[in-house]
Design goal:
heterodimer; A: about 375 residues; alpha/beta; Rossmann fold; 7-stranded mixed beta sheet; two-stranded antiparallel ribbon; 11 helices; B: about 550 residues; mainly alpha; 21 helices
Chain lengths: ~375, ~550
């Protein structure tokens, strides 16, 4: 084929795929950071979308999405459900391969919690709000044994229901947490992480709505959530773009964080809000520091929410970012991935241990 | 800038069109492609464009000096400087953090606090690939197999965007001659390119993403939470995922280059159809295999220095090939496994060859003693052997009868030997080849466990889990997963002639229809794939 024909074929290909996937292009443009580039991309994609609808070229994709039961724009990116454990098989290896709270020597002084470790007094359980199918849940809330600070002791028959959710940072945290609690057989953990999401762009992914679904579908006793990695951007509220870091932005972000925390509220449920760690980029870290302050402030207003400060947990002795930090045996351990943002497995283990300690202090997990 | 994104589609469409417009004027085409390649690279991290430029200038300067060196010794000295500089650059970016932290921890164990900055250096994407490109260029110039190219040609060779970030590792001798001539504007292999790009996208976006999300990531993260069946299928799935991911990338790279009128060498050839480990390495990441062979294994002495040295060279080459992927013991284990496996295979093959040679000798085939094709030994020789070997014949038997019996025994033995020889020289049977394929695939999977695991210990956890994980419950092993794995394995055995025939039929269509069909294929891939696409696995190497 000649070069001219090749270019023509490629041009036709791009045109066809643009028209057939115009809706997807609009979605992609919507996901871009607010600003002129997004406006331009959205404008071009919308024009393609109009032509596509006019020619009914959006139909094949819609049919395919219907056939595959997909909801465009609200599609799961990565979802990690609870692993299934063969209890017999697990028992043989858990003691050798699984770190346990007792065996770890992770320095606990790195864990800074802005609210008291002892859970505050909860609102009394109102009739009908407790889950009658979960034996022990309401009973332990109403009559808390003093040594268990108001919580039942989870067992294999009635495991503690824990939900771990958030942006891509929740992946390492969740996987490490699964390793800590999963094989015990007394914690039923559901891990859900969605890359490139947060609280800043409900038009792309509406986390409060998702959390509402989650608490409705599968009532949890502990919710561990983590947001912020993608929230250092302008917000759009009531048709106005709020530049990052301005008082208006901070006020709006407060409102969104508060909404997410309130969605998770239920009597007898603990919410652990994990803050963002310091990152390699100083400017990015500064944004995270601002957001962490919002999380801490909102958590302090709500007795059911406890905030885990990972910013200082992953800072060196000078309070600066470090890829390597002293590990359990004080040896230098790589805590972060190459991007200087996400945790390595060891980093995930460290923050998971902090979360586990909080949960364990409340729920008195066996083992 | 990832291949399966709208951003890349827009970029590539523009580069392709402008590139062909400039193809009549090669100097301008090269300048344009070079700038486009730097723009492509800047899409990852613009700060590292300077690194690519510096590497280009350094290696071009060294190659020119090597070529002009007055003596062989001087050329060799310059070559050493160039190779050390390239490896130093690679080592700093890839291995500094690992070695610095190991050193600090080692000294701390001895009670000495080492004040060494321990940082994880940001890894420039593709550094392993463009460094290997550069080394092969200066070595070829030193060997005299290649004359130094013009700077612009060499710069395009290093930075050409389809292969810049994850290969294939194209030799200078393969790309530079194509840059010296005006591109062929009439014979673009569009059909082959279209098939490669569609296949590559399907492998990456649909297959690799599905396997990764469905089973691989979660099982490798916490193997102790899953049954043996799930762990086993996670390992199979990873074998397919890494193949689909990496071969998908190179398929797209080769396809894009073809559309621009440039040919790259193949990088994969149905690796899971390999009947042995050596065969696997002739089919997997072929451009890295031949790089390691030509620039590491052969300079180490190859197979010319005896059996022990050959084994050592094989293991060294594979371990260093493993370390090329990153500074981690798991890559050492992976490389060591493949090196050790090849040593064992070579030993077995050598033993079989010696056995065949002995049989030939015994049968007198192709030897000085029996050059007539197998004449029976003379009578006295037979009797001597009879006296030595045969104690069972009755004493009453006459000498003639003993000779007759011996002759029959020897004839029968000879026929048996002949049959064995024919079988051995014919190669393995169909059943033997399948056994070889299955054994090789499982050996390769064993290597992948350590390659993918977070650490060597986690790799052992996976192996342990396979033994004591229990086989009862395996909800992750769904029919779709089994079909995906089985389909990918079966596809390794599809004869190339079928694909060629399909391409031939496709090429007869009018260009617009070809483009429309490929556009529809993209839609199907997009619908079947997840919303976001993870970076290619080999970008981290």
């Amino acid at each position: 084929m000649s070069a001219r024909q090749t270019c023509a074929a490629v041009g036709v290909c791009l045109l066809v795929v643009s028209l057939l996937s115009a809706g997807q292009m609009v979605e992609s443009a919507r996901r871009m950071e607010l600003g002129s580039r997004r406006d331009l991309a959205l404008s071009v994609a919308t024009k393609f979308d109009r032509v596509s609808h006019f020619l009914s070229l959006n139909r094949p994709r819609d049919w395919a999405n219907d056939a595959l039961d997909r909801d465009v724009g609200f599609e799961p990116v990565v979802v990690g459900p609870t692993p299934t454990i063969d209890p017999d098989a697990t028992a043989s290896t858990s003691t050798t391969t699984m770190p346990t709270p007792q065996s770890t020597t992770e320095p606990t002084l790195l864990l800074e919690v802005t609210t008291p470790l002892t859970p505050p007094e909860r609102e009394p359980t109102s009739p009908g709000r407790g889950d009658p199918t979960r034996p022990g849940t309401t009973a332990t809330v109403s009559t808390p044994p003093p040594n268990q600070v108001g919580r039942r002791t989870p067992s294999a028959e009635a495991p503690l229901v824990m939900y771990v959710g958030g942006d891509s940072m929740a992946r390492e945290l969740g996987e490490s947490l699964l390793a800590l609690v999963g094989a015990s057989g007394v914690v039923d953990t559901d891990l859900e992480y969605r890359v490139s999401t947060g609280l800043s762009r409900p038009d792309f992914f509406d986390w409060p709505a998702r959390l509402q679904e989650e608490v409705t579908d599968r009532p949890m006793e502990v919710a561990v959530v983590l947001f912020g990695a993608n929230d250092g951007q302008n917000l759009e509220a009531l048709g106005t773009v709020l530049p990052f870091g301005t008082p208006e932005w901070i006020a709006e972000y407060h409102r969104r964080v508060a909404a997410a925390m309130d969605v998770l509220y239920a009597p007898g449920r603990d919410v652990v809000w994990v803050g963002m760690p310091i990152c390699r980029s100083a400017s990015y870290s500064e944004k995270l520091r601002i957001m962490n302050q919002v999380y801490a402030d909102e958590a302090a207003k709500r007795p059911w929410v406890r905030f885990v400060d990972t910013y200082t947990m992953f800072s060196d002795t000078d309070g600066a970012y470090a890829d390597y930090l002293p590990g359990a045996g004080h040896e230098l351990t790589l805590m972060r991935q190459g991007d200087g943002i996400h945790w390595s497995r060891q980093g995930g283990d460290r923050v998971a241990q902090a979360v586990f300690d909080l949960v364990d202090a409340t729920w008195n997990l066996p083992g | 800038m990832l291949f399966p994104t709208i951003r890349f589609a827009v970029f590539f469409g523009a580069v392709l069109g402008i590139g062909w417009l400039l193809a009549r004027w090669p100097p301008w085409w090269k300048r344009f492609v070079l700038v486009a390649s730097y723009v492509f690279y800047a899409g990852w991290n613009w700060r590292f464009v300077g690194l690519v430029v510096a590497s280009t200038l350094l290696n071009q300067a060294m190659a020119t000096r090597i070529h002009r060196a007055a003596t062989r010794a001087a050329a060799k000295g310059l070559l050493v400087v160039a190779v050390v500089a390239n490896l130093g650059l690679l080592g700093y970016f890839k291995y500094y953090g690992f070695f610095a932290s190991s050193l600090v921890n080692l000294f701390r164990d001895w009670g000495i606090e080492l004040s060494l900055p321990v940082v994880q250096v940001i890894l420039p994407v593709g550094i392993s690939f463009f460094t290997f490109h550069a080394i092969s260029y200066v070595v070829d110039v030193y060997r005299g197999t290649l004359a130094p190219a013009r700077l612009i040609d060499f710069a395009v060779y290093i930075a050409f965007f389809p292969h810049l970030v994850a290969g294939p590792i194209v030799r200078a001798s393969e790309l530079l001659p194509q840059l010296r001539h005006r591109l062929d504007r009439t014979g673009v292999e569009t059909s082959r390119a279209a098939f490669l790009i569609v296949a590559g996208l399907f492998k990456k976006v649909v297959l690799a993403s599905y396997l990764s999300d469905h089973i691989v990531d979660r099982v490798f993260a916490n193997p102790e939470l899953y049954s043996a069946a799930e762990v086993l299928f996670a390992v199979y799935a990873y074998a397919i995922q890494i193949y689909a991911d990496f071969s998908g990338y190179t398929d797209i790279a080769i396809g894009c280059a073809l559309l621009m009128g440039i040919r790259f060498p193949d990088n994969f050839n149905a690796p899971y159809a390999a009947v042995s480990i050596q065969d696997f390495w002739r089919r997997w990441h072929m451009t890295l295999s031949r790089w390691l062979r030509d620039y590491l294994y052969i300079p180490l002495g190859g197979s010319r220095r005896g059996r022990a040295r050959t084994s050592l060279n094989l293991v060294l080459t594979m371990v260093l090939g493993g370390l090329w992927h990153g500074a981690d013991w798991r890559f050492v284990v992976w490389g060591g496994l493949h090196g050790g496996g090849q040593v064992v295979e070579t030993a077995v093959r050598s033993r079989r060859t010696r056995g065949r040679f002995r049989r030939r000798e015994r049968l007198g085939i192709g030897t000085a003693a029996g050059g007539d094709g197998g004449r029976p030994g003379d009578e006295s020789d037979s009797l001597r052997r009879l006296a030595l070997l045969n104690k069972g014949l009755p004493d009453s038997m006459s000498r003639e009868a003993q000779v007759t019996v011996l002759s029959r025994v020897e004839t029968a033995a000879r026929r048996r030997e002949e049959r064995r020889l024919v079988r051995a020289e014919r190669g393995p049977t169909a059943a033997g080849r399948w056994i070889g394929r299955i054994a090789t695939f499982h050996f390769v999977c064993l290597g992948w466990i350590f390659f993918r695991a977070e650490s060597v210990d986690r790799g052992w956890d996976m192996c342990r889990r396979l033994v004591d994980g229990g086989w009862g419950s395996a909800p992750l092993v769904t029919p779709l997963l089994v079909v995906a794995i089985a389909g990918a394995l079966v596809s390794q055995h599809v004869p190339a002639v079928i694909m060629t025939a399909l391409q031939e039929r496709f090429s007869r269509l009018v260009p617009a229809l070809q483009g429309a069909l490929v556009g529809c294929a993209f839609l199907v891939i997009d619908v079947l794939g997840p919303t976001g696409v993870a970076p290619f696995i080999y970008f981290q190497f």
